[in-house]
Fold each of these.
Amino acid sequence: MSVVPAEPVESPEPAWRQRAVERSTRAAKLRAEQRVQRFLDAAQELIADKGTTDFTVQEVVERSRQSLRSFYQHFDGKHELLLALFEDALSRSATEMRERLSTVTGPLDRLKVAVDLLYDSSTPREGQQSPLFTDFAIQLLVSHPDQVATAHLPLLALFTELVEDAVKAGQAVTPRPRRTASLIMQTAMFTAQAPAAPVGAQPSRIGAEDVWEFCLGGITGAGQATGGESGTQKAAAPKKAATKRTTTKKSAAPKGATRTKA
Amino acid sequence: MSVVPAEPVESPEPAWRQRAVERSTRAAKLRAEQRVQRFLDAAQELIADKGTTDFTVQEVVERSRQSLRSFYQHFDGKHELLLALFEDALSRSATEMRERLSTVTGPLDRLKVAVDLLYDSSTPREGQQSPLFTDFAIQLLVSHPDQVATAHLPLLALFTELVEDAVKAGQAVTPRPRRTASLIMQTAMFTAQAPAAPVGAQPSRIGAEDVWEFCLGGITGAGQATGGESGTQKAAAPKKAATKRTTTKKSAAPKGATRTKA
DNA sequence: GTATGACGAGAATGATATTCTCGCTTCGAT
DNA sequence: ATCGAAGCGAGAATATCATTCTCGTCATAC
């Protein structure tokens, strides 16, 4: 990165030289990546152990049996480490979500499941798991909003697809699927994150169900399937555009099913 | 607080003694409150000046012309100071919002305006304003979720009223107004807070309008008034339950208007 | 075989929050 | 007016981290 020659792009820099350097470089790069990975793993362990992202750079260094020196040679700072972990987790999560969704068929059902999964992932666990979506994500949101947005891309892509599919199936309406997807994600993630009611209020915690209903029908109540198992179906029923599920599915579903893996 | 006698509630502790002590106490308490206020004011000024909550306790102390000693005698720590400021700001905001809403009539319009205002308050401003809703609020969400929830109460109460009114007017549907209100608030606040799209994507920033549409109709599209000025009206039209605005208003509106100030 | 760059160990720095020590005032009761 | 306790100011002392820097060592490329 900092090895860029001072001169601008003058001579195309003969390919052979490139390759020679590259060969020399490759090994080093590989070692570097291994080290980075060790830091990453160590951090991950610490997070799992302490259940929080409040670990110290020192701890990471010790656990990875490396040195502070090395750490700062590979990372711009703690925030970069966290960012790396964050991106990785979200990307991984998107992939896993796609897998689980492969067994679900209806566009709206798929979206609902996705919301459930996301909500679940974002719920703080005392025990273990990754608070990657939770506290830590929020900290980053303050300090490095852009990069957080980048990290969200994989999931956002997934949700956007889901929304688009639902729209194509005539089971949802929105002029800008991407924005809507973003709103759904945010609602699920932050709600899961949010604290229960403070005092002795009954409406305590807002669950994934509540989130789903809200996302589905907003406040005009299109999606008021308070019930249980396959609520999605019923939910959409009262709505005009969403009723002909069977019909629309015929025309739009194929595309939807395909895009899921794309 | 730490002056509680060791013995349990044995003798009802003669009232006169109580009063005597109380009288002695009152003055001190008053002085204490003044000092606290000075800290609060100083902090507020710093926030306004620097446009961030990254001020130092030292700075607060200096600005308030008091001492660290004193600061920690009155506050459990910096976070308590922030919390105090936060609660105050939110409470104040709820009040102000109520005022502005006093000129708006339709239940849904009122809710929309509230969402707009909240979104606006929560939008990060480089210049000045209160980062109290933004970065700082998020930090607290991580470290003191319960207290944040408490701080949200005033606004939550307001939004709950608005939602309930809308429901009573037949312009909204929800089994648990409080939860719905909470969801609306979160959506508005966090979305305003969220970063713009990372790459060169067009759908860039999600605006208050988008938030409102989403809250209104969810993804089933009950509220698709992409338009402008008094969009709310049109938005509700396509929905079955929401259409008879004129009709329902007759029966439910009076109650709604009343509660606004309650 | 030697120069170079990466590394480990750990000290040094710098920024902050929080605590502690020492006297000096002030307030309130007698 | 006087005394004792509590409150307070000034600022040193701690504690915690992140981040940087110094000094050798060692592996590797040439």
Amino acid sequence: MRGVLSDSALGRQVNGQLVMDYIVQHGPISRAQVAKMSGLSKQTVSELVLMLEEHGWVREVGIVQGKLGRTAVTYELNPEAGYVAVADIGGTQIKLGVADVSGKLLEEVRIPLAAEGQQVADQLLHGINDLLAKNGIRQDKLLQLVVGVPGVVDRQKKQVHHSPNLPALQGGWLEEQLRESLKTQVLLENEVNLATIGEQWKGKGQQHGSFIFVAMGTGIGMGVVLDGKLWRGARGFAGEIGYMPVLDTIDPMVKQRGALESVASGHAILTQYATLTGQPATSLPEVFALAEAGDAVALGVMDSVAMSCAKAIAATATVVDPEVCILGGSIGSRPEMLVRVQEWLGKMMDEPLPVEANHLGKSAGLFGAIALALQAVNSRYFSPQHTFGEVVIPSA
Amino acid sequence: MRGVLSDSALGRQVNGQLVMDYIVQHGPISRAQVAKMSGLSKQTVSELVLMLEEHGWVREVGIVQGKLGRTAVTYELNPEAGYVAVADIGGTQIKLGVADVSGKLLEEVRIPLAAEGQQVADQLLHGINDLLAKNGIRQDKLLQLVVGVPGVVDRQKKQVHHSPNLPALQGGWLEEQLRESLKTQVLLENEVNLATIGEQWKGKGQQHGSFIFVAMGTGIGMGVVLDGKLWRGARGFAGEIGYMPVLDTIDPMVKQRGALESVASGHAILTQYATLTGQPATSLPEVFALAEAGDAVALGVMDSVAMSCAKAIAATATVVDPEVCILGGSIGSRPEMLVRVQEWLGKMMDEPLPVEANHLGKSAGLFGAIALALQAVNSRYFSPQHTFGEVVIPSA
DNA sequence: TTTACTTCGTTCATATTACGAACTAAATGG
DNA sequence: CCATTTAGTTCGTAATATGAACGAAGTAAA
């Protein structure tokens, strides 16, 4: 029981994880079935299921009759084994939610975003505590909190960088405060990355091991999933394609704001339309309406933005070669944008990368946060570092 | 002994792999030292080392005296446990080599490249057989062959695609012929990817878990290493940045040849110089000499190529966020190109990605092939699929 | 209703693997 | 020459997984 991987409890870990997986994935299932599918012997499975049951991770569901042979007792993941909280700090509001370990979202609330950093932290704290109270969840049953932020997250230092829309979030204070107040593990994650994980879990990414998710809204960002794993980059900067150089001129202003973002985003649509017409910038829905009505300038702007977006996708495709690109965000999810991007990609690439519309819309972020939280919980309680399946009170 | 991960031999596999690693990494080492470092008990280590010795993977080196305490018997990787062959099919010649499992290159030869596809295959076969014979290596001791090819390799189908300079290599016939004739496992791999693995193993990549390697020669290509693993892409197309769109015009010809390759490569230097001067294209060394002598046109061409290259690197940096970029290839490894690329990157990026000159030069490909071959051998003989460390005769 | 059959799940004897403690071996160093 | 130190082995014990046998609890059919 000393060495890192030395004792035979390693096998127990692996097999326990395996049995847990079968129960989670294949819903109510009998021990005999798990044994058949996993190749483990029946008693080993029985032992492991007993252990999982004692720790509260699985529970008996019922019995299966009607088939030939003895009645089978079936087991499933115990949703009450624990809970996770998720938050998504957007441009104008905060979305909050609690989910159980089966991934079921129990409740969701939206709060208008406060102006100041410390107020935002308080909003998160109170919001989550309210949700826990209303759903009768004890604090020690809260296993993980995941917060989506509009910025680059350094996972090692647990700090937020490059958060132009909400500079108050920068640094590591938010994570620390939430962790200490809620007495649970806290993960901060870039909002586009969360939406990407969401699409992977419940959206178009399910069929694909490697894909990119491009979110075009006010700004533009990307999530990169390679072999089923989100790639965050050496400094958490992966997918920040707003800074991708696509112009031929090198403009110091562009370097600041992000080269691609200045030509492929909601912001770009407004500026370009204003510049071309000489009129002060109108609203985005207005430009879209004008384009649909056949306005030449609006159509030209749409096309130019689609081209820049396609260029970024094509460039990315040569670097990481994904199976597919999922296009999302408030602009990117519009069908007229999707077709234009596809058209331009066809002109740029010999074998154009398939581009699909996203599936989850605005909920992708929260779903992704739940998925990430469950991943974290899973790797925490079923990794070789811990005693098998034992629920420890998560704290610093 | 039935289930996939079911029997306790799994632990044996893991611990055997662990002990093997310590012996390989820490040179001549005693069993007591391995026990201390790994956390395994002394007898477990003794058992495993005995097993490894019986299978021929390790051997006794000698004894350590002079220190306090009993003499220690030290062990090391047995270089004669097996051999790998490597080949690099270049533009004008084939490089061949054989190495032992310790990674030591025993002999290297160069052969002028034959004109026709089947002739190339024969050259490989005869060349490798000659090398084996000269170095007294029995065919059943040849555990792996790795061949570097100038094209995109589909690992699932074991086929070569997009090989414009050597179209005869396309398809899966080469792998099949080599495997059946040499009766060993064969891996084909893109030459830039091999150079990347080479830099990772023995070059600048050693200090970095995630980096990109840009090879600018006649054409331009890139290798992507993320968290220590070469990323090949869904179809083996990752890093084919020759096709990256960087121009503002969409030219069907450019789509064919590759947009970036037409502005950032040896080929581009020649064409641009010829266009600007109106003279027929000169040779590359000539253009470099002119630039050094202060010729304005030559300097302009250099700068323009460096800018395009920097743009591709900056674009890649926003997508994968590597720690560093290693610049190589016959053009890229020139210091005057390196500084220019660094200069341009400074203008394009807020926190410019560090760019370093490559370390291994033209041998990177062969080194990478050896590293890849050893990886393949390692995962073959020490993976849970096989009986621990048992040498099986590799065949179809 | 009884009997045969099928499948679920447990009990039991056995094999593998790892560990720690005790022991032997072989050197150094005064 | 003997204490000390380190290397390596022997041996008893504990954990884990297995397969075979067995008991349990249903269906199917005579």
Amino acid sequence: MGRKVSGKPTLSTVAKVTGVSIPTVSQVLRGTGRISEETRAKVLDAARQLHYVPNQRAAAMRSGENREIGVVINQLLNPFNAEVVSGVVDLLEDHGYLVSIVDTRDDADRQDRQLQAFIRHGRGGLLWVPAFDTPESTFDLLATHGIPTVTFLRHVQRKLDHVGIRNAEATALATTHLADLGHRRIAYLGGTDMTFVRKERIAGYESVISGRGLEPPLVWDSLDNKLAGLEAMIALLDEAPDLTAVVCNGDMVALGACLALAKLGIRPGREVSVVGFDDIQDAAVATPPLTTLSVSPRKIGRKLARTLLDRIEDPDMPPTVSELSAELLIRETTGPMIPRVPAKQDGA
Amino acid sequence: MGRKVSGKPTLSTVAKVTGVSIPTVSQVLRGTGRISEETRAKVLDAARQLHYVPNQRAAAMRSGENREIGVVINQLLNPFNAEVVSGVVDLLEDHGYLVSIVDTRDDADRQDRQLQAFIRHGRGGLLWVPAFDTPESTFDLLATHGIPTVTFLRHVQRKLDHVGIRNAEATALATTHLADLGHRRIAYLGGTDMTFVRKERIAGYESVISGRGLEPPLVWDSLDNKLAGLEAMIALLDEAPDLTAVVCNGDMVALGACLALAKLGIRPGREVSVVGFDDIQDAAVATPPLTTLSVSPRKIGRKLARTLLDRIEDPDMPPTVSELSAELLIRETTGPMIPRVPAKQDGA
DNA sequence: AGAGTTTGCCTAAACGTTTTATCGCGCAGG
DNA sequence: CCTGCGCGATAAAACGTTTAGGCAAACTCT
């Protein structure tokens, strides 16, 4: 006995040991077909003793089934995204899927390679935040291979399922809040390219500005991290010293902006109000705690997962779009407007 | 023409269109074997037109080659980890690997399921931060299946390759720095379980305490996030009001601690000094900027990837251990010791 | 007891590749 | 004119599964 001791155990190994045929082993392990109690026990025993682990690749190849899904995200370092992914994983792992994540860093070429790889390696479904300048050809690629795909956050193409945030509604909410507090000169800070998300958010902001007849809109660019937010805020105040409120494109920028204010001796929530977006963990523990627009990332994650599962089950449904409303969490970085004397400010 | 229009194109489709055999197509696409210029051109053409994408699963099954590697990490929300992963991906993607990430959230059961899944799905290599209470059986599982594996950060088992940080050296550096500034009552804050990492760090801290004859060591628990760090710091000061310096288990905790100090009207870097660990992005832009121990996460990432590649190339090498030294970045949360009058403190 | 049904297992084929061995062919050398 | 050889391509086998179909033996029913 012990012909081929080395090498990983396969169905054939188990079959040989047990003295039954390969399909029988397969059926026992998967609980299909008619099998006598006796054989079942023998097989299970042998499988356990050999530490047999099925080769999912071979299985998938034959059966077409595919329980591996890919998450393609633009920036894993962003805590909001990371939490969305958490929610996704929760639900999908419960359904027996293996979720594997990949970070495009908003580079369309990298993204293309990664998607190609996902296709080659046979992912059964995709959750995707399209990179900034995703070309049309990338969508064609996915369409050609008919992989069930749900985009999220960035709503780029209507042919795919989508889960997102009611961005315009959210920023309108924030801007209204500020207007109600008496602010009349309100800027929008954050984002760089005119991404779809940002476009929507700015639209919401501008609608309130013009609806309330406030000072003309002022949009200022910034990358999505604290340091950039800090620098941008300083520049912005230099440009518009009479500013009393800012709606930010994300919490990272908002927190950076607060740091900038502190550095200039201006108190966030007093002389200048700041509203963030995302409600990342840090927002609640910052000093002062950040007023922000909150959409539970885990909820988005679960919604995403559910949408993908539905799509996998019925690939021919018309595309679905779900948009979740944001909630305004009023903390301490917003307060009644206090007219500002545009003071001369020096660095540091 | 157009027998089977639907369905994904395979080698056989391309072969039929071109009028050559399947192996010929395979050889052309992979650049092996002897092929005439004429056929080569024909095949490439057809492949392109059909949008043919090789089925990597089938290929891997036949050839045994395996260009998919898995990253198993304990907490993706931690920015340090996320940056390590960035470094890994950089290098491995260049080598034609697909890197997929999975988050255990330090749950050993989940980790087990995920590793099982990785084995079933045939990952060719693993980069792994073992979860807190990883049982021995998990290591057996990996050993049985002989998957090239490199652990990082948590050095749990000597039979596997490892890339880590010289933890004891690092905290000793920090503690020495504080002692040099005149501090005599220095606490260690952060971490909960006695993980290997934490054990090493505390050892480094204690060695300096006893070497310099300072006040006896004081170790205080905290989860690894800002809020927990904040609460822990308050509790710690309550316990030891004469404290003048803290070495922290991570930047998140350290930043939380600084928030706590600010809340109590104590200036970090003046009345109480704080040293962090990791140098996450926030550390540099915090107010005041955090003195911290820095190990370039991307460097770790690249080292990790390199180690794994070596291991895959030669599976029979004896296990390798690489440890990177941390560097002390002195910013503004540490300063000369000022004797503290243990003031009565009330909440908020 | 014979016909029909159920039970328990097996054989054969298929999934899409890669690999190994082989084959026909034209050509150079003896 | 036969032999040997390099070239270009092919046929067949293999990877580890799952699925469909089949076939004896053991039951059930009249």
Amino acid sequence: MQFKIMTVEDDRAIREMIAENLTKWQFEAFTTTNFSNVLEDFLAEKPHLVLLDINLPIYDGFYWCQKIREVSKVPILFISSRNNNMDMVMAMNMGGDDFISKPFSIEVLIAKINATLRRSYDYVDLQTDILEHQGIILNLDSGTLKINEQIIDLSKNEYKLLHILMKNHGKIVSRDKLLRSLWDDERFVDDNTLTVNINRLRKKFESAGVGHFIETKIGQGYIIP
Amino acid sequence: MQFKIMTVEDDRAIREMIAENLTKWQFEAFTTTNFSNVLEDFLAEKPHLVLLDINLPIYDGFYWCQKIREVSKVPILFISSRNNNMDMVMAMNMGGDDFISKPFSIEVLIAKINATLRRSYDYVDLQTDILEHQGIILNLDSGTLKINEQIIDLSKNEYKLLHILMKNHGKIVSRDKLLRSLWDDERFVDDNTLTVNINRLRKKFESAGVGHFIETKIGQGYIIP
DNA sequence: AATTCAGCTAACAATTTTGTAAGATACACA
DNA sequence: TGTGTATCTTACAAAATTGTTAGCTGAATT
């Protein structure tokens, strides 16, 4: 099931960041900047969930929450600029379903959205799980890789390696950790087997036109910067 | 990273339910029922996160939160029996990191725990992603299956099939949907190929001593009830 | 600059995975 | 109950994955 999410947020940078990430996570995202009549856009688009900033020009988020509640039980997730406890209580009393304070990480936002959707709709066909970094999308459902619209099939070893490295992007992952993650302690594999598997993974990236995704840190391990 | 979580909750059923689920989600769980000295157990175990019920015998959750705060900055997630806004504000003022009201879904609890851990510890090595149903655990990271402590390796097709069926447990998934999920439209595969792959998956369950996990609904598809 | 060692690459064989064919069952409906 | 169709099972060959070996490359250290 494809959920449609409406974002009401006046800070353009945040608005665009949210929309971009929602799309990335396979939601249908749309934003409104018609702050004098949010309800109009809501009724026109009928989203499955509303992300509502509290600080808005003209009327505030609480006002629009009330307006929406008059016509719909759609789940509403409030976004607050400051970590204000009164806001949080207010938001909940208003009929808000959850509350997130800026600054927030996209992972937390997505987790909250998924949790709220799961609670509000009886849906079992969960969102596609993905891991994204620099335009490279790892699909956890199918174990495939998407690089500028090309779908690349990964073997199980390749998938496991990339999964670990992408989860830890920005940090060096030691060869030892990778070895222990892919092969049980009991099972003895040659140290070079890891190198070969990294090599195979890199070749797939190269064949898709991506040069240096996985970097070697000699003596330390590998990193996706 | 393996996080240790301490649960302080007087309702035995809830306490055990939480502990069981924490373990399932790869946390190290321990509970205390020493309500006259929660701090003692806290100091002995040094957990990474505390789940603290507000209504407790002898002293309440707020008291223990203060006691813990005197010695530690460990993240504390409050559990409230009633959806009481004052409790929520109080909890936050006390130095609580998050707040969840009963009844809560395990998914939400886990999401909140993960979000809090992510905020509190600079860890990028996220929790293992799993899908669980009736004691059968599908590890999304490694593409393996865990059936009463046995680890069973799945091939890529077997993993994809099981993943879809487990995501949709309780619902019938049509053969057509499975076919389209596993094989691109362009790629023509025999209709029986799906049957064979289901058969192979079932054999792995049987070899682990599980009889009827995937049921056939003739003319409709397959279902994990 | 020479040396050393960590990591890279290519080639090979063993193993596993995969799709298909062919015949066997079992269910649904007349 | 009989018939047709959907699903199951087994066996087989093709294809992909995997671990190892052996030799190569390139960075770090002296």
